[in-house]
Amino acid sequence: MSTQNRVQSAPTIAAWAHSCSRGRLHRPIYKRAQRPNGIWVMPFGLAAAVFPIRPYNSPNPPLQYRRVPSLRCRRDPMVIVFFVLSCLIQPVWATISVSNTTPMQGETVEATYAPNGADKIVDHKTSQFFSFNHNTYKLFPTESGNFHCLIAMPADLTPGKYSITFGDEDCPITVKNAKFPVEHLSLPKTKDNFIMSPGEEQAMNTAKATLSNQRLWDGHFIKPCQAKISAVFGIRRIVNHKLLKDYYHSGVDFAGNLGQPVKACADGKVVLAHRNFKLHGNVIAIDHGQGVVTIYIHLQKIMAKEGDCVKAGQQIGAVGATGRANGPHLHLSLYVNQVAANPLPWFSKTF
Ligand SMILES: [Zn+2]
Asked: Which CATH number fits domain 3-36+92-175: 3.40.50, 2.60.40, 1.20.920, 1.25.40?
């Protein structure tokens, strides 16, 4: 058992029980105690209780004690105050926990800050952020009074040790190598490039950066297309016999037929619905809240407009081969706080 587990306190166990009740079977790993002000005062209070008497051995005790000759000692009032205070100040353990301390590249983890009665470091009025890998992650309140956010491990993040930090506190994690496969692909010369339309990159980046406070999804995501997966997340590609440097597949490809329905993975709001982008073709992006965005690329048809609120399973388009595609398929991307995450775990697990 690690040191981190030994400092787990009653409130943190309650927090863990709560997270399990929401279908999360992972066991949080708790960090060392933060601001344990009460625990340091307690020994002094105990000492005051055991050794409260300060005898006066002087043959000439102060005047007030001469009136009662039998009482030749007194309790130091400051020691008594110290003892009472130490009883009133309870130990507190503010903790940072993470749902998985050894995630793979591309994996999404939930990071939680549990104040557990510690100083009011986090309140509802001020935005607070975790830091990880030079990015910041806005924290959102949970039903149990804690604060959390979702963090995706970038596919190209070098495996190794990292920290999720909050102020001067940190929670160590170890990112593992996902060993993504390499795929050979042939594209016609006209499509063997990443040229985008004017404004395409900015529109895509704006959609990925959507950060709304309200969590709109419930339960796990549904697959947007009833077809087999032809390319998994994270693969590197050799296109026309040339390895694409710094490239990894930022989503999942579903080998759907032309015109096959494409459905929203979860409840959300359409933040981008655009036709004829050179790279992405016809594309829809849906904001699910709290930094989670799904993007549906290469569509034949678009059946929603920007600003529409859509439900999980609602048809939003049809499978196509628009943009840079070598045949009909749906490319689904999932962005978590602007980082491309592997969508597959989201189809079987609630984040
Ligand atoms: Zn793709």
From this structure: 2.60.40
Cβ neighbours of residue 317 closer than 8 Å, sequence gap 6 or more: 261, 262, 282, 284, 296, 299, 300, 301, 302, 303, 304
User: pTM, whole model, 2 decimals?
Assistant: 0.74
Q: Which CATH architecture has domain 182-347?
A: Distorted Sandwich (2.70)
Distance 250 CA to ligand 1 centre (A): 7
Tokens, residue 68: 């009662």
C-beta separation of 299 from 283 below 8 A: yes
Residue 290 CA to ligand 1 centre (angstroms) = 24
166 C-alpha to ligand 1 centroid (Å): 35
| Mean pLDDT for back-to-back runs of 10 residues, the chain (351 residues) | 35 39 37 45 58 54 53 61 63 81 98 75 66 95 92 97 90 97 83 86 97 96 97 91 87 98 98 96 98 98 98 98 94 98 97 94
Q: Which residues are near ligand 1, the ion (C-beta closer than 5 Å)?
A: 253, 331
Ligand 1 centroid–CA 199 distance in Å is 21
The CA 87 to ligand 1 mean position distance, Å, reads 61
